[in-house]
Predict the 3D structure of the following.
Amino acid sequence: MYLNRRFIIASLGAIGLAGCNANAQTTQAASALPSDLRPIANAGFANWSASFRTRAAGAGISAHTLDAAFADAGYIPGVITRDRTQIQTRRTLEEYLSIATSDERLTKGRQAIARYANTLASIEARYGVEALIIAAIWGMESQFGEKRGQIPVISATATLAYDGRRRDFYESQLLAALRILERADTTPAQLRGSWAGAMGHTQFIPTSYQAYAVDFDDDGRRDVWADDPTDALASSASYLARNSWRTGLPWGSEAGTGGLSGRIIQPQRSGVKFAVTRNFDVLKTYNNSDLYAIGVGHLADRLGGAGPLKGSFPPDANGLTKSDRLAIQRGLTARGYDVGTVDGVIGAETEAAIRGFEAAQGLAVTGFATRELLNRLR
Ligand code: CA
């Protein structure tokens, strides 16, 4: 279960960390999906679907549910493209935290916490998982519900199962998704998520949904897709509680600042060290990455009013510090180039802006953020 969830999330490039992800899915009508992410007819897929439906019927899925689920389902070419080309973006911890705790995310997070304060408090009371931790997971996974994914889950998981690279895993996900429809937790039209099948505000894959999702608002449906995040947030709390979250224990702290004893980790060489606790390991059951768990913990701390980290990170491979990279982004912005979010992270948009600047200046076009570029922009 956890391993499965881990590689799904790792493969997403963290959909919630979409600040510099040009392919981020936002809340939008299905018709606004890029054409390569819409289901299309495919003879091989149709043959596979027919045989799968026999297996699904044998597993207890009704003909009614199968008819409804597959009525508009099809092969999604863009899902396979993404599955083939996924490269875990290698971000340093400094870059990861810059994105995870960007000003935009903090602002949206404070608004979301204010709006759902009562809901979060009720969830904390029932599951013993602190409201700020639940809010931070929400922020990391879907930017507080803004980026829940709009790709039809039946088509996406069926496409991946048909493709066969991880057939057993995706057939399990597809069956779990069909059980969602069988129980009428949501409708085929609402059953949407990421290209890899992660669904709703906190990006549960279907098998995790079946194991952990809860109907917190007692309307008879475990609805993690609705605009109202109540069930989704409670489901994440349920997940952490059942993975032994200890109420009141901090996740960790920057080493040397919190008086917290714990295991010391240093994910980025010469960078900030952290003292982490058992709850840090519980966060890693959600996504088995030190960066992710620190991201959740630090975002929770920041949303609770704590300041930035006190320690510093070393210069990057080009000898630039975060303040140098921010100066490059601000210099490009001042000259009319769009760098995306000014966050000190050199992503695809900043690189494109650098290329534009270099071309306009008659320089060799590299897209590299360098000391020389910084000097030209100053
Ligand atoms: Ca409900």
About this structure: The radius of gyration is 22 Å. The pocket of calcium ion is lined by residues 215, 217, 219, 221-223, 231 (CB under 6 Å).
